[in-house]
Structure formats: structure tokens, C-alpha cells
Amino acid sequence: MLNFTPIVYNYRLLLTLALLLKSSLVCANQGSPSPTAQQSIDNEQYTLDSQIHDCILQKLDTADENTRILELREICKQEISQADPNSPLSQERSKLAKRLISEYFDSQSRYSLIPHRRNYILPVTYNSNPNLDTWSQLTGSRENFEELEAKYQLSTKVPLSDPLFNDRVIPYFGFTVFSLWQVYSDETSRPFRETNYIPELFAIYKPKNNPFESSAEILFLFGVQHQSNGRNEPISRSWNRINLGVVFDWDSLVLALSPWYRLPEKNSEDENPDIEKYMGYFEVNMAYRTQNHEFSMMVRNNMFSGNGGSRGAVELGWSFPLWHRLRGYVQYFNGYGESMIDFDHSVNRVGIGLLLSDVL
Predict the structure, then answer these.
(1) What is the rounded distance in angstroms from the CA atom of residue 138 to the CA atom of residue 342?
(2) What is the DSSP string of 75-111?
């Protein structure tokens, strides 16, 4: 049998010292003649930390020796949110609003990475319409391409400052890496056939009043984004965009409309001058969560038949609980622009794997 007592004692001691230190810092801020928005956030977070701390200590007295501290923390957060409607964890806040609040608190720790877009690993995907032209440029042959390959995306962001303009605007830097891996291709040493890098600067704005007189909560996004595959000619691909966006949040349902404007380049430097014909001029994203399952959809289209016909893409996703924080993820993609190397090639892919961060 494991002795649980030293673990409980050390946890009590460390949490108590941490909260005492945080209390002294908050009290010092309270002594300032002109309280700030940051002080208000610190006070709210200190109260929440204290409630969670006391709850965990109570449950440790009767916890099973195999119980994890993180499990107790999640249980306590749920109990607090149900008991206190004014808590930052309150169920009265929408799921997206609670995510943004949680992300802000997490960003105060230098040991935390905040998710931006979805983070997932799909060890098995099947593409029924591979782009053999670019594959031959990579390997010198149209042979040995495997329709089965792995696909993953890692995405994080960091706030660049505390909330601005009466706490209604938060600026961010985001970075996303997306990759397609020919892990099942024995003949070609399993290469990463395509990797896209997406650094971006953007801001989220929460208006004081709903400009659309809708029952949904409204957020606005604006920013600038670079996307490239980091390769040399003739398979180098890149473009730069100014992005705008409006998000409608109905608690379990989120709808986002994101038009963009491509920043022009010199003809001699433009590696993909017709990319808008395939990637379109806007993107619509939807996420719906019910009973711990999340369903998502992405649609984009060029909307102009004069550009050689209607082109675009559809992506469907379903995430479901597996174990602890890991979730299963099934994704289907059909259309153009799945990756930079395939922006002008229609892809038909289905994959399954693990999801590390969701939208809601």
C-alpha cells in the first residue's frame, strides 16, 4: 500500500505557501491609490484559487490513494461553478467565454501553452486523390506514394499585453504548424512531404453592446497572417493576408465568418498568383457541442464562377471523449487548399486520431 499522507501534507504546504505569497501581492496592489483592471482580475483569480485550494484539501482527506490531484481539481471546479453563479467558472457563461477566461488565467503562467487552433494528431488518413505531380518534384518519381499518411496540427498563441481599451481588446501572437507525413512509405524513408507554417498577429474585440441585436454573444477578430511551406523553388508556396472576423456565440453553438484580403506581391515574386481562385475569399466555421461530443464544419468558396468555376473546400470534424483529457477525432476534408503544396489540387481525405484541444 502506498502512503498517501506525505503527498497530502506536501501538497497542503506548497499550496498554502503559494496562496500566501499571492495574497501578499494582491494586497499590495490593493494599496495602490488607483486600482486597475489587472488588479480586479488578480482579486477574482485569487478568490477562485482559494476556493479550489480549500475544496481539494477537503477531498484529500477521503480520497483514494490512486486519485490524481488534477482529477480532484476538475471535480472542485465543477462544484464551484454550480454553487456560485458569479464564479469565473459559472455555467451561466458560454463555453467559449469560459475558454477565453481560462486561457487568460493560464497565460499568466510561464509554464503554460495556450491552444489557438485545434491541436490534433491523425496517425491514419486516407487520400483518394493524391497530388502526384508535386510528389514527383519531391522524389523524382510518381511511384511509391502512399495514399495512407499521417496528418497533424500544432497551434499555440500568447497574449501580447493585458486587456486594452477598458478590457475589451486582447492582442495575440499565434503560431501554427501543419504537416503531412508519408510515414507508411518504406521506399522513400518516410518523408514529411509537406509542412505549413502560419505565424500571425491578431486581436479579439468584445463590444460593449451587441451591434446585431442578436441573442448571441459577439466577438470581432482582426489581424495579419503569413502562410508558407518553407521550401525552395519550384515548390515554394506562400501568401500574406489581412483577416477580419465576426464570431456569434450561442453557448453550445459557435459560428464564425472570416473574410480576408490578400496582400499583393510583385509578379516576379508571386509564387502562387492564382491562389484566391482555389482558396476563395472567406471562410465559415461552425462548432457545436452536446454531451461532451463536438461537431465542427469549415466551408470556404471563391464565389466567382468567372474564375474558372466555383472552387472551395469543406471540412467536417467530430471529437469525442476517450480518456482523461484525450479525445478521439475523426476528420473529413474535400476540396482545395488543404495544404499550400496542394492549394490548386482537389483532395479527398478522411482520417482518425487524437484531439488535444477543441473549440468549446
Answers:
(1) 13
(2) HHHHHHHHH-TTSTT-TTS-HHHHHHHHHHHHHTSTT
Active site residue ranges: 226, 228
- Mention every residue, 6+ apart, whose C-beta is less than 8 A from residue 127: 147, 149, 347, 348, 349
Strand ranges (DSSP E) for 136-273? Answer: 148-159, 169-181, 192-205, 217-228, 238-249, 253-262
Predicted confidence band of residue 3 (pLDDT cuts 50, 70, 90) = very low
Centre a 10 Å sphere on the Cβ of residue 76 and count the other Cβ atoms it contains: 20
Segment 245-276, tens digit of pLDDT: 999 999 889 999 999 999 988 877 787 888 88
CB crowding 12-30: b at 16 or more within 10 Å, else e: eeebeeeeeeeeeeeeeee
Confidence of residue 32 (pLDDT cuts 50, 70, 90): very low
What pLDDT score was predicted for residue 83?
63
Q: How far apart are CA 99 and CA 181, in angstroms?
A: 31
Q: Which residues pair with 115 in a beta bridge?
A: 156
Predicted confidence (pLDDT) per residue in 176-202, tens digit:
999 999 899 887 788 888 999 999 999
Query: How far apart are the C-alpha atoms of 166 and 222, rounded to whole Å?
Result: 18
Q: Amino acid identity of 245?
A: G
CA distances from 67 to 58, 71, 91 (A): 14, 7, 25
Q: If you count them, how many residues does the chain have?
A: 360
CA distance 68 to 286: 34
Pair 271, 238: CB distance under 8 Å: yes
